[in-house]
From TrEMBL:
Cited SMART domains: Glyco_18
Residues of the signal peptide: 1-19
Protein name as catalogued: GH18 domain-containing protein
Name of the coding gene: Dmoj\GI18890
Originating organism: Drosophila mojavensis
Keywords: Glycosidase, Hydrolase, Signal
GO cellular component: extracellular region
Length: 368
């Protein structure tokens, strides 16, 4: 009997831990402008599939103040208020405002982090943004300190900025998270890992984009070995496992093959693959675009990742099986959870089966 009780206690604790894991859903709000089955707005979000909804993106001005990048969408259409309103469907949902992103660059953030007045402008505008709109916290996606026009001092200044944000947020209970470059080459240049980890609630590790057409050959967007190496690097350099959130890309990186008969990983490519009907960007296909194609698909077990090809088009992406493998790794390392970039490129309409297959796979592993 005692063994049975002990087993039930262990199972109960496991369920509790699993239930508390983070599933952070980034949402690129500009998908509202996509056509047909690619159009995505608040009504397409299943609030129960996320513990956090990360509303992307806000930017900053030259004075360091946070600003809307699309006031018509954010306020006139009411996307912010509608997003925050999803908490009525899931009372435990946290809605975060995301500042930064690739297109925002690094220069303004470097200047802001290194100047006391601009930091205060940033912090005060962050408080106003959260208070005035009902957000539960801020996610800072500076890509990347000490790179893309930044400077070495960014590393220490980033710690200072995060510490001041944490102190300003504390009286209100606001959460603070960051999105970070995953691999050692980026992380070693950009971050004082142990120091930033002390200042934030959790760290979204962008474990994807490990291969691009600019490499001159096809490659995997998120091979298992690269993900494991990246997470182990963060762990070994002072990031606690319970603050690391593993990134899953709900999209693929596509390539135009130099020779259509050479269609394997590492084959030469002449550039990015053709744009998809929804995302409209060369070299990038949403999972909702990939799954409807009748391309030949191969699952590469050495990389725990699929790829597909048709003619001179080649794409590497994640599917249900590869996401399962990644979640098993996250569980083996007792990570805080997982995040997706991003909601609107999963198969949210269920064109190929169930809706949100990748996000639901994450939930089945981590929460259900």
């Amino acid at each position: 009997m005692n063994k049975l009780i002990a087993l039930l206690v262990v199972l109960g604790l496991s369920a509790l831990v699993s239930g508390e894991r983070i599933v952070n859903c980034y949402w690129g709000t500009w998908a509202n402008y996509r056509s047909g089955n690619g159009k995505f707005d608040v009504s397409n979000i299943d609030a129960n599939l996320c513990t956090h909804l990360s509303y992307s993106f806000f930017g900053i001005n030259d004075n360091g103040e946070i600003q809307s990048l699309d006031t018509w969408l954010d306020y006139d259409l009411g996307f912010i208020s509608q997003a925050v309103g999803l908490k009525s469907q899931n009372h435990n949902l946290k809605v975060l405002a995301v500042v930064g992103g690739w297109n925002e660059g690094s220069v303004k953030y470097s200047a802001m982090a290194g100047d006391w007045n601009r930091r205060q402008n940033f912090i005060n505008s962050a408080l106003n943004l959260l208070r005035n709109n009902g957000f539960d916290g801020l996610d800072l996606d500076w890509e990347y300190p000490n790179q893309r026009g930044g400077q070495w001092e960014d590393r220490a200044n980033f710690v200072t900025l995060l510490r001041e944000l944490r102190e300003a947020f504390a009286p209100y209970g606001y959460e603070l998270s960051i999105a970070v470059g995953a691999g050692e080459s980026i992380a070693s240049s950009s971050y004082e890992i142990a120091n930033i980890a002390q200042q934030v609630n959790f760290i979204n590790v962008m474990t994807y984009d490990f291969a691009m057409a600019s490499d001159g050959q096809t490659g995997f967007n998120a091979p298992q070995w690269a993900i494991e190496n990246s997470i182990n690097y963060w762990l070994n350099n002072g990031a606690p496992a319970d603050k690391l959130v593993l990134g899953i890309g709900t999209y693929g990186r596509s390539f135009q093959l130099t020779d259509a008969s050479q269609n394997w990983p590492g084959a030469p490519c002449r550039g990015v693959g053709g744009a998809g009907p929804f995302t409209g960007e060369g070299g990038y296909l949403g999972y909702n675009e990939i799954c409807v194609n009748n391309w030949q698909t191969v699952f590469d077990y050495n990389n725990a990742a699929p790829y597909a090809f048709s003619g001179d088009q080649w794409v590497s992406f994640d599917n249900v099986l590869s996401v399962q493998w990644k979640m098993d790794f996250a569980l083996s390392k007792n990570l805080a959870g997982a995040m997706v970039w991003s909601l609107e490129t999963d198969d949210f309409r269920g064109l190929c089966g169930e809706s949100f297959p990748l996000l639901k796979t994450i939930n089945r592993k981590l929460r259900w």
